[in-house]
Design a protein that fits this description.
The chain has about 400 residues and is mainly β. It is about 5% helix and about 50% strand. The protein has three domains: about 150 residues, Immunoglobulin-like, CATH 2.60.40; about 170 residues, Sandwich (Immunoglobulin-like), CATH 2.60.40.640; about 50 residues, no CATH class.
Amino acid sequence: MLYVRTQIVPDAACVILRGQPSEASCESLAGRVLIRLGYSLKVKRVTVAFQSIDARKQQHRRQNTIRSSTLMQQDIFDASDSQLGHAVWPATYGSSPRELLFSFIIPGHMHESVRTAFGNIAYELRVTIHTCGFGINTWTQTQRIPVYRVPLEGSGWALSLTDSMCVQADWLGAVELQMVGDSVAFADKSKLRARAIVRPLQKGQMLADVGLRLCEKVRCKNLVDRFGDLRSSQHTVCEQMRKVYDPSDSLQMQPLNHERCFDLELDIPDAATGCVQYSMNTASLCVTHELTLVATVVDQQKDAHLLRISAPVQIVPTIALEASFAELPEYSKSCFDRLLLDSSTETLWPEHSNHAEAWRSPPPPPFVRFDNDTSDGSAITPIPPSYHQHGFGGYGMLVS
């Protein structure tokens, strides 16, 4: 069989840059190229290139143009300096494929992969086999490699991902809406959970429905429309609306005679599909996300009012929300050490063989310290815990 099959196998499916472009360090992108041949081939050299694909929409022609530019290139096989100027590779059917290694250093100031209505920025690995002879002299294969950016540990951006969400506002002193969440940062391919609280301030109000809506706003800083304004777009990523009925009558709306709480959730799509982009703010592009709580309230005159409150959220890669350090056990749980439970006290500490039970007794609470030098003769002095709450400065807006 006459075939040349090439497969690019990178060590990682994507490139993760840590920190802002001005502070991010370089990252390594390594992998291997597998080549399967159905016949012997005269090969001069094999190159691997890391290149960008910049697709932009033309303003007048209304068509997409794809432009590729090679950022870095590496020769992983070169036989041009040999006596024949090439090397003969035998067929590989029935045996393992030929394997060649490659490695690139990706600079930290590189732009992230993004797919918007104004243009796309993507990266790919491209392997090219240069042969000699008649007919086709080059064989190419490409594979997309996305580039993402996550905050640097300890930076202000990383600390902002740990904030909680709490925003509230009232409408004409009649109804108060509140949206509460554990975090303002969410990963793609995950569930966004938030609690909606509808609190009546006056009697006679009725609730028709309540729901969540996640919107994405894209603003291009180097493109303007015919009026001279910056080009921008907005679309709804996902939403969920829940009808609210009276428990005694399924055809009637629920009266707001007391506070109502609803646990709502949204399914965030995969960023690789292009339905949602990661939050970013670069020199040329700004992508922001907004979570909106929507509720329909009917007043005493049977007029329906659509109420909304919004809070900014961030969509980040999953690795940005994962801790990079191991979680140490609490001091109150150190008595469950496997070493102490599985080993006898005589083996570990022969001099304390008479106090075997003392080693298995639980330690004191974490907020208690021992002080034998107290003036009143007390041996234990309690230390009150400190309470630190990370608030989130969201913004609320009610529109009827």
